[in-house]
TrEMBL record:
Keyword terms of this UniProt record: FAD, Flavoprotein, Oxidoreductase
Pfam families in the record: Acyl-CoA_dh_1 (PF00441), Acyl-CoA_dh_M (PF02770)
Similarity comment: Belongs to the acyl-CoA dehydrogenase family.
Gene Ontology molecular-function annotations: acyl-CoA dehydrogenase activity; flavin adenine dinucleotide binding
Stated name of the protein: Acyl-CoA dehydrogenase
Residue ranges constituting the Acyl-CoA oxidase/dehydrogenase middle domain according to the UniProt record: 180-257
Domain of life of the organism encoding this protein: Bacteria
Organism: Mycolicibacterium litorale
Cofactor: FAD
All copies of domain Acyl-CoA dehydrogenase/oxidase C-terminal, residue ranges: 291-405
Gene transcribed to yield this protein: acd
Length: 426
């Protein structure tokens, strides 16, 4: 029987049977009879997409993958992974070659992040919080949007940057802040307050934050600036013991009259969703890179389900494998379709274009990617069955890791409100 079979990104071809499309091979089992070997053929899977990292070998990915369960079980920072990321030059990946970087574009870096997350989700998520500073600064400098030469120089010199935007009780994200910034006569700021979920806590050197300046009570502003870890007014409180992505070490950072030097302030804007161009560039890197991490988690979960279904036996009538059951095929098909759609939207968000709606596309991509990722992982658990919730099964960890996606700022409520208001002309 001839069949129309989707192959990767290359469209539909009428070239093979279903068995050929699955690319199954045969090998003798313990009885000497041939048995199909499980395979994944989706063009969005690192097991089949032909992607070649500019930084990591198969051996790198194997080591990252092997360590992930231990980091999770011990609630430990990914120290060994981090050392390998630094040694590979990954922390300067988006910097221009003149600064010792690799000049990766946003689409290229998003692809790297998706593949890293496939093997080591928490490692990929945490390093995102450094990479989006590096990528957006390189982009802003190239466009002449902001004076961030010092930031690029510090990253090129090996400094590690963290993101300090989460605050307990702040449900409007960058539009306002509970942390306070007091402007000094020399143009510096004194920062006081607490930031939560600051990933990379064991290793960061500087943290980018937003804080509220009420020096003119009638016209408060939001200040985007950076604080050095070695400032005496900075301390890290080890509070991180979370459901998932445990290796990120996203502890609290407390500021007590900490200094933000004048040249480290990169943007100031009124309270509310009125962002200067640099912050728009920042978000255009942060949101797709974050989305790519959760797509990597979902793809790994889906592949585990696909491979498991091809080896799991069935006692149902004349069906030999779980993969032969129509219900399983339907679940996998729906998950593949949803994943393809989310991948396409995130890919579109990495291609920056002028205009209001393309700017919102990154928000849409973050919302759709993280919710789709959660749904795909849930489907994978259903396909695998009760074994998936065992602590010894990789899916159990992925099920926990994917839960945090929609909680990253801006959360689902904020994203849907923003997109809905624009779509309705409000």
């Amino acid at each position: 029987m001839r069949n129309l079979v989707p192959i990767g990104w290359f469209g539909i071809i009428d070239a093979m049977t279903v068995a050929d499309a699955l690319r199954t091979t045969t090998a003798p089992d313990s009885t000497g009879r041939s048995a199909e070997q499980p395979v994944v053929v989706s063009g969005t899977s690192p097991l089949a997409d032909g992607f070649v990292s500019r930084f990591f070998s198969a051996q790198h990915y194997q080591r990252f993958h092997t360590r992930a369960p231990r980091y999770d079980a011990e609630n430990a920072f990914f120290t060994e992974d981090f050392e390998e990321l630094v040694a590979a030059g990954y922390l300067t990946a988006p910097l221009p070659a003149a600064l010792g970087g690799s000049g990766l574009t946003l689409p290229e870096l998003a692809a790297e992040q998706r593949h890293l997350a496939y093997w080591a989700p928490a490692t990929a998520l945490a390093i995102t919080m450094h990479l989006y500073w590096a990528g957006s600064a390189a982009d802003a400098a190239r466009r002449g949007i902001a004076d961030v030469d010092w930031l690029l120089g510090d990253i090129a010199a090996g400094q590690v940057f963290a993101a300090g935007h989460g605050e307990r009780g702040n449900d409007v994200g960058l539009d306002d802040a509970l942390v306070r910034a007091r402007r000094q006569p020399d143009g510096s700021y004194r920062i006081t307050g607490r930031k939560v979920f600051t990933s990379l806590s064991p290793v960061w050197d500087q943290i980018g934050i937003h804080a509220r300046d009420d020096s003119d009570p009638a016209n408060p502003v939001i200040v985007h600036t950076f604080v050095r870890r070695d400032d005496p007014g900075v301390r890290v409180e080890e509070t991180w013991n979370a459901l998932g992505v445990r290796a990120t070490a996203s502890h609290d950072t407390v500021f007590d009259d900490a200094l933000a030097e004048p040249h480290r302030t990169v943007a100031v804007h009124p309270v509310g969703p009125v962002y200067p161009e640099y912050i728009t560039v920042l978000l255009s890197w942060y949101l797709p890179l974050l989305s790519s991490v959760y797509l990597g988690i979902a793809r790994r979960a889906l592949d585990l389900a696909i491979l498991g279904a091809q080896t799991r036996t069935s006692l149902h009538g004349d069906i030999g494998r779980h993969a032969d059951k129509p219900a399983v095929q339907r679940q996998i098909a729906q998950a593949e379709i949803a994943f393809e759609a989310a991948s396409a939207l995130v890919d579109a968000a990495t291609r920056q274009e002028p205009g209001e709606w393309p700017a919102l596309r990154a928000l849409a991509a973050k919302e759709f990617a993280t919710t789709t990722a959660r749904s795909v992982v849930d489907t994978a658990v259903q396909v695998v069955g009760a074994a998936a919730v065992s602590r010894s099964h990789e899916l159990e960890r992925l099920y926990r890791d994917v839960r945090t996606g929609s909680l990253h700022p801006p959360n689902s409520d904020a994203v849907l409100t923003a997109i809905g208001a624009v779509a309705l002309g409000r």
